[in-house]
Amino acid sequence: MTSLFDRVQLGPLTLPNRVVMAPMSRVRGTADGLATATMATYFAQRASAGLLISDGVAPNLVGTSNPGAAGLRTDAEAASWRQVTDAVHANGGRIVAQLMHGGRISHPSISGLQPVGPSAVAARASLFTTSGPLPAPVPRALGTDEVPEQARSYAEAAVRALDAGFDGVELHGANGYLIGQFLSSNANLRTDRYGGSVAGRIRFAVEAVEATVDAVGGDRVGIRLSPDAGIWDAVEEDVPDLYDALLGELERTGPAYVHLEATTDEDTMRALRRRWTGPLVVNPSTWLQRGGAPYGPVPTNRTIADHWLGLGADLISFGRAYVANPDLVERLRLGLPLAEADPATFYGGGAAGLVDYPTYRHTA
């Protein structure tokens, strides 16, 4: 069976193992969207991963979802990421930028703009803002002629990302952000070519990937998806058909990899593995349910990772486990216990809870 510690080729990158650090929004940038030296330390500490994926990074101003997160909206923001990519490369690692357009999961107090979405339907959710939790506002529905501009925003940010030293980009099509909103049947009520049928609902995702592939090359592009997750109130119908059609179009478009969260049943995940013949990253997620809705993941361990490798995944992404274990690869390899992270320091703040988790201390 494939081992978590086997080498694997991902586009132009030769990865020394199949452990991926999943994207996590740690929100440790400056108030004006710049990456920091502390962030550089954080990612460099975890460079033994086969691949690092950055926090979700806004590709443009209207797509900004998290206050205090470093962006790729401008050349200045891109330049600030150079310290991060240089530190990772100096430690022998590889890192891609996750491009995250928030769509309706944004607020005027964050971006100064009314959020946009496929339809004028607010998420039934409370958003984190600089003024504390606030109800999600009603977004402005994008006109048919405006949608391609938002698709191109991923491509434009991808160019800036590669200029900043990233090894590639991952489009965030999961968890109810803009791509997921177009896939959704309750956030997307459109009757034009971007809505209605399965073919209409996948069109934005396909166009965003196509634009990014055209801009930087397919071997530098991935996409993350979360079938049937329901996160941020983005409900999907016809999930097996929806994602079968989307992955079929992605086969034609040719990104380097697809990153699937295991947010649907295992039979559907197996079918999607068969549909997508390229490299597949699986985030086991193990989403718990409370009243039929997902509310939080169980940290992935070696046993769970091996299970998904056995089902055909090529790489396994670890999120929460990487927060408190900068040396996660070594701990998994040697069967060492995993430290537990403090949820109080997951989001925002300074160095505490970001760069102060130690590597494993061996005792005589």
UniProtKB/TrEMBL annotation:
Domain NADH:flavin oxidoreductase/NADH oxidase N-terminal per the UniProt entry, residue ranges: 3-338
Superkingdom to which the source organism belongs: Bacteria
Coiled coil start-end: none
GO molecular function, one term: oxidoreductase activity
Stored CDD domains: OYE_like_FMN (cd02933)
UniProt-recorded name of the protein: Alkene reductase
